[in-house]
Write a structure and sequence with these properties.
Strands 1, 2, 3, 4, 5, 6 and 15 form a 7-stranded mixed β-sheet that branches. A 6-stranded mixed β-sheet has the order 9-10-11-12-13-14, with helices on one face. About 25% of the residues lie in helices and about 25% in strands. The chain is of the alpha/beta class. The protein is globular. The protein has 5 helices and 15 strands.
Length: about 280
Amino acid sequence: MVIRIALIQLKIAGAREKILKNAVDLIRIAKKEKFANVVVLPESFNIPYSEADFAANAEAIPSGETSKALSEAASHFGVHVVGGSFVERDHEGKLYNTCTVWGPDGALVAKHRKVHLCDTNIPEKLVVNETSVFTRGDSYTTFYVGETKIGLGICWDMRFPEFAAAYRADGCDLLIYPAVCDCYTGELHWELLARARAVDNQVFVAFCSPARDPHADLVAYGHSLVVDPWGKVIQKGTEFQEIVVADLILKTLPEARSQIPVLQQKRADLYELVKKK
């Protein structure tokens, strides 16, 4: 089996309605012209990433405007849509950075709340304080496309190898991370992290970024990419709006795992991963 994945490196600027229309148009192109069966949007895809604007743009799931747009697009075009992330407000008023996944019938098949919130302070380059806005998620999130089990993370989740390893131990063959990564750390770590998560766990890894907007509060690095289980970058975008398409040749998984059987060679007498939830 082959999964054709399309990463929509979306330009995120202007009113939410305009951004959603652009996203739906690109989902259509990804399915109808690129023949993708999994389409991925970036983190904070329905509004520019700005801590000051998150609360005012929070929505309920699945009743909110963004959920309805994604559900209708998935159903209308008959494709799995990994809806990047947007701000969710729950019934208690808490805010989460949440990724939704919609099946080809328009049904909500998964919802991932960002587990690792980004608090970082790089003098004169970057200050982010997500814990002042969001509540942490506390669960792993998986879904299937055919027989392929897929694990979800959002941006900062990619920096924690134990989290990815737990997904691999749970049988995932593909990890998807919608992300807004700044240019400074993107240049240093973006490709490195994707390749590390892939080669450590012998899985496919996809990072989906927004397009770069030099006027944004947080300027995204771009360069959405897909890495195979050998750690090879099989597709990578530029910094502009585009659709990054890659074919995931699933027979690569048993080849890599049988030829370099590191998961069978782990020393459980010395160390082990404990998945607590």
